[in-house]
Here is the input.
Amino acid sequence: MGFTEVFAATHDEALKRAADLESGRQAAPGAVRIPDISDFEIERLGDLAGAAVHAAGADYELAMVDVSSDSLLGVPAAMVRALAELLSYETEGEGDILAEVSESWAAEEDMPFGAEQAGRYVRQLAELAAGVDPTTKAGLYVWTS
Here is the structure.
């Protein structure tokens, strides 16, 4: 299995980045590259994040954004919000939500890393999501090799 890269971009920038990735270029600055997972694991993370911030049931399914790349998928706004909320979600004695989501994600079947590494990835993805400014027409994108 290859890798999955998650990055923030406008639609046009995402298409350019997908073309770069398809030609073998390195990770873009600010992107989160995760080896040995697919877009399915990113969707599962969205489900877990949504449940943790009490937004379960929203559409967390990644969607194809352009016919020019089967490997490029868009992250729905609900998942972007849920991931971003992991950084600041207020709980009443429930513990560290980001750590709980990370542990649950690492425990998913066939995950290639443990809770500690999952925690680093989830924090990076949450920070990436929190930095998305919808006024710039930017969004989160997932590219899987």
